[in-house]
Amino acid sequence: MSHYTEDELSAYALRPDAIEDRESVEQHVAACGDCRDTLDVIEAFDTALHDPLPWEVAESMPPRREAPSALLDQARAIAAEDTYARELVMPLVDSAIRFREARVDEDPRFFTLAVIRLLCKVANGMHERQPQFGLVLADAALSIATKLPASLQARSAWYVGTSWKERANALRYLGRFKESEEALDRAEEAFDGDEHVEPFDLAIVEYGRATLYCQMERFDDAVASARSAAATFHIYGDTRRYLSALLVEAVGYYSVDRDREAVSLLERVATLAREAGETGLLARALANAANCYARLGEHDRATTYYTDAIGVIDGLDMPTESARLLWAMAALKVEQGDYEAGLTGLERSRIELGQLGMANDSALATLDLVAGLLAADQPGRVPELCRVISVTFSSEGMMRSAKKALAYLNEAVTSGDATPETVRHVRSFLEHLPDHPHEEFQQIQ
Amino acid sequence: MGNPAANRRVERVRTLAWKRRVTARRHLRLAASPQVVYFSGRSAKRAHLWWATVTNDQSEFSTAHPLEVLYREHEGLLRSIAQYRYRIPPCDAEALVHDIFASFLERQPDAYDVKAFLIGSINNACKHYWRKREREEPLLPHHELTPNDDEAAKLERWALRLSLGATLARLGGKCSETLRRFYLRDESAELIAQELDTSPAYIWQLLSSCRKRARQIYSAITRSGS
Q1: Residues sharing a CB contact under 8 Å with residue B204, sequence separation 6 or more, in sequence order
Q2: Do residues B36 and B137 both lie within one domain?
Q3: Is the pLDDT higher at B31 or at A356?
Q4: B111 and B72 fall within a common domain
Q5: What is the dihedral of CA A209, A215, A216, A217, to 10 degrees?
Q6: Fewer CB within 10 A of the end CB, N or C, for chain A?
Q7: B118 to chain A nearest CA, in Å?
Q8: Same domain (yes/no): B151, B193
Q9: Which of A356, A409, A417 is nearest to A385 (CA)?
Q10: Closest Cα to residue A122, out of A233, A114, A181?
């Protein structure tokens, strides 16, 4: 079906009576979604021209203004300060030792707002790789903030807030959650004390709280913080942060077994992420939705979402995430009773995870395989696989309680008493052990 | 076996080392391990969904968004929001817009959509302006909404009306005048033609081309980040 051009539809919208083949246009538009959409936009625009406000605005608005010289001067001054700060700071930050030795917070040359801003920026990019160094950088920024000349102190609230926020980020990565929360409180306090409080800054603090609360397993707080942050990010048009905050909100629901709320939010995130071309967030939303549906027992939907997620992840060239999704999908097949495909998939996954250096995940996938083999009544390879798991955990520096759990499993396998539930119990314990290192293993009663 | 205190120390070192390795791997992947339903069951309280840890929130302003371009593109819209949505006197509106740009320069936020960020910022500044003058003139209820989807939609509608204002300001005099008479004053093409001493056909043609031009300008103005 050929479409009408925008000009043709515009002519129709302006003067339908003057169109020779008016009836054909109307029939086509009634049946063609694309042309209907184009015509809707044209008609909405024409309707908006009846509104007096835009005309009033137009009258008072000179076509365009150039930036005033005061702002241009400020931009130049900031650029010069940034350049100087970079010259001072950047040679020091490629090595934590060199940075520490430089004692920048004792050298007045570094006592500028631009240096604080730059230190925070460098810290921000450092947390993921070297959180301990990120913390040193944030603390240096905080220390400098207390030593600024009086003229700069008055303008320093936002800088102090940003430094606290970076300290909080570093502490979160280091697993020092309580201190991280305190740092976020200080960040909020500092931002609130600024003359020009920007809700966007406060929303970033709130988002930090949401992720922190997830790690602290305070899921209700995580939901509240994530929701609040998302609302502000939405207002500032920050789609990436908005969707990220919604993802955290969904994690909060999922973690307290509110799977339906989680999955509905995740589907919304997936739709918006797809529209915005945010493929990383799309992949996460799809994978999470798959996990939710799997837990809800809706296996077909879970499979569809896993497949979709794997497709997106493959496009992002993230082999580790792809391997983990294939693992989850194989486990789902076993759950569905499709032992042939499921066990083959788990075998492939445990090898692939091992090849990617994900020893811990590989061992967990092997445990999944063990339980699957027991469920399928194929126990032949189980003792051999259990030995592999013991070796893996030993080389990872296994702790005493993990040894106890694996010994329990080996004993059950040797005596022929092992069941899928036994393996599930041990696996669940081992999986959560890094987050609960002091937990003692309890046998199934 | 052996010295219990020493054994405890060794165990502790192992615990920390294992935990550190696992934690480091998680952070590199930006995701927790997948929920494998068959084995974890509903009793597992720990979240195993993935989330994006967006901590990167600063950027290089000077290279990414030259002030001259930003100012030329958005100053008019921001000032209109202050004047027309919030009824702030013109000279104060101008000062607020100046402050918004000054703050943007200094803080260098990593804005996903610069225009939307600046609009969010001017909305906040305008609310703050009226809060400070509460005794003189209280804030209207629609200014005081807490952030939610509804307010975001309202702000968007306002921004679109103001963008249309900016569009009309950029249109040429003849186009602007013809559209105004036809749409705002509801004058017919025949009447406009008569007053301009020309043919109605010419006016229809003019209306057609001016609308097209206006849509193009509007589209350029409202395009993200422009």
Answers
A1: A14, A15, A18, B189
A2: no
A3: A356
A4: yes
A5: 110
A6: C
A7: 8
A8: no
A9: A409
A10: A114
Tell me the CB-side half-sphere exposure of residue B83, using CA atoms within 13 A: 23
ipTM of the complex in this document:
0.76
Torsion, CA B177, CA B179, CA B183, CA B188, rounded to 10 = 80
Give A335's contacts in chain B (Cβ within 8 Å): 37-38
Contact residues for B24 (Cβ-Cβ < 8 A; gap 6+): none
Query: Which residues lie across from B58 on neighbouring strands?
Result: B109
Contacts of A228 in chain B (CB under 8 A): 147
B65 and B166 within one domain: yes
Token pair belonging to A292: 């939710």
Cβ–Cβ of A200/B121 closer than 8 Å?
yes
Domain boundaries, chain A: 6-52, 80-197
For domain A80-197, give the fold.
1.25.40
Report the range of poorest mean pLDDT among A183-187, A266-270, B202-206.
Answer: B202-206
* Three-class secondary structure of residue A118 per DSSP: helix
Inform me whether the C-beta atom of residue B225 falls under 8 Å from chain A C-beta atoms.
Answer: no
For A66, the closest of B49, B68, B204 (CB atoms) is B68
Write the CB contacts of A327 (distance below 8 Å, at least 6 apart in sequence).
A345, A346, A349, A350, A353, A361, A365, A368, B34, B36
Q: How far is CA B136 from the centre of its chain?
A: 30
- pTM of the complete model: 0.73
Domain membership of residue B147 as a residue range: 59-170
Q: What pLDDT score does B53 carry?
A: 43
Q: Which residue of B has its CA nearest to A335?
A: B38
Share of chain A above pLDDT 90, in %: 60
Chain B hits for A131, CB-CB cut-off 8 Å, are 27
Last residue of a domain, one of B30, B53, B76: B53
Backbone torsions φ then ψ of B58, nearest 5 degrees: -135, 150
The residue type of A296 is L
On whether both B125 and B68 belong to a single domain, the answer is yes
- Pair B69, B166 in one domain: yes
Determine, for residues B39 and A396 on separate chains, whether the beta-carbon distance falls below 8 Å: no
Q: Answer for the pair A346, A331: CB distance below 8 angstroms, yes or no.
A: yes
Place of tokens 């296994």: A398
CA distance B185 to A398: 81
Q: Given this model, what pLDDT does residue B52 score?
A: 44
Residues B71 and B154 in one domain: yes
